[in-house]
Specification:
Length: 77
């Protein structure tokens, strides 16, 4: 039980965005939220329930993931 709660604590936070679909491709979905367009990557593991098409209102659950991390050296003191 402790291992399960530790694993859950280490999982990245989930977020969601809701709005009409502006664009759908195999590798992304674009959702309109207010005046902004949110482009969210998707892949073969992205679960889709219903008929995903332009104009459909959707709620997308997503997590942020680092693509790369560059550490800058501190300046000389």
């Amino acid at each position: 039980m402790l291992a399960a709660s530790l694993a859950a604590a280490a999982a990245p936070k989930s977020y969601q965005v809701t709005g009409p679909v502006v664009e759908v491709k195999d590798n992304l979905i674009m959702v309109q939220k207010g005046h902004e367009k949110w482009e969210i990557a998707r892949d073969k593991d992205s679960k889709v329930t219903g008929n995903l098409k332009v104009g459909a209102k959707v709620t997308v659950q997503y997590q942020m993931k680092a693509k790369s991390i560059e550490v800058k050296e501190e300046g000389k003191k």
